[in-house]
Amino acid sequence: MALGHYQQTSLTNAGTLLQGGFRMGVAASAASFVGGSLGTILGIGNLTGITENIERSTTQAGNSDMPEEVVANHSLTVTFELLEFWPTAFDAIRGGSLDTENAATAATYINGTPTANTISTGGLNTLTPKAFIFENTTMVSGATAKTILVVYKAKIEQGMTFTPKTDRDTDPAMVTPFTLMGELDTARTKGDQLFYIESELGV
Question: Which domain holds residue 78?
Answer without folding.
Answer: 18-58+66-199
